[in-house]
């Protein structure tokens, strides 16, 4: 991607070598990092301290078929954010590009070359 290599693997118990995140974990990390980017941009735009800005993610797989992520919990830490600005920040991060793509999924085509 743009000249960057991204490594993925599976845990040893699932046939991999556990040398890198799973594709599913990378998917969740993409959402968390997008939220973090939008949060940082919000804090900068409003001249708020972004020291300590952090987004952590937990996810659970759905129990039914097809195999998929069933839920994601993102925890946003922004020590420099006044309480009265939380709703505004929430509105912004809830519209990050990855989040928007989950709510309005793209068409995905698979072609052989």
Task: Write a short abstract of this structure.
The protein has 113 residues and is α+β, with helices and mostly antiparallel strands. It has helices at residues 23-45, 86-93, 97-103, and strands at 54-61, 69-77.
Description:
By secondary structure, the protein is of the alpha+beta class. It has one domain: K homology (KH) domain (GMP Synthetase, Chain A, domain 3, 2-Layer Sandwich), CATH 3.30.300. 34% of the residues lie in helices and 15% in strands. The protein is built from three helices and two strands; from the N terminus they run αββαα. It has a two-stranded antiparallel ribbon. The protein starts with 22 loop residues before the first helix and ends in a 10-residue tail after the last helix.
Overall geometry:
elongated
Q: What letter string, H or E per element, gives the SSE order?
A: HEEHH
Strand order of the largest sheet: 1-2
Give the percentage of residues in beta strands. Answer: 15-25%
Could you name the CATH homologous superfamily? K homology (KH) domain
Largest sheet: 2 strands, antiparallel
Individual helix count: 3
Which regions are unreliable across 5 or more consecutive residues at pLDDT < 50?
none
Structural class: alpha+beta
- State the assembly state of the protein chains: single chain
Query: Termini distance?
Result: 18 Å
Q: What is the CATH topology?
A: GMP Synthetase, Chain A, domain 3
The count of DSSP E runs of length 2 or more, i.e. the number of strands, is 2
Any idea of the CATH class? Alpha Beta
Number of domains: 1
What average pLDDT do the residues reach?
96
How much helix, percentage-wise, in residues?
25-40%
Task: Give me the CATH architecture, please.
Answer: 2-Layer Sandwich
From the alpha-carbon coordinates, what is the Rg to the nearest angstrom? 17 Å
Pfam family, one: OsmC
Transmembrane segments: 20-40
InterPro entries: KH_dom-like_a/b (IPR015946), OsmC/Ohr_fam (IPR003718), OsmC/Ohrsf (IPR036102)
Protein name: OsmC family protein
């Amino acid at each position: 991607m743009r000249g960057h290599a991204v490594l993925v693997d599976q845990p040893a118990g699932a046939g991999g070598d556990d040398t890198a995140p799973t594709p599913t974990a990378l998917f969740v990390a993409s959402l968390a990092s997008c939220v973090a980017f939008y949060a940082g941009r919000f804090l900068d735009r409003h001249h708020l301290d972004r020291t300590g800005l952090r987004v952590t993610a937990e996810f659970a797989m759905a129990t039914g078929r097809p195999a998929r992520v069933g839920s994601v919990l993102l925890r946003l830490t922004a020590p420099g954010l006044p309480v009265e600005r939380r709703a505004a920040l929430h509105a912004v991060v809830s519209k990050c590009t990855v989040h928007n793509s989950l709510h309005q999924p793209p068409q995905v085509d698979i072609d052989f070359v």
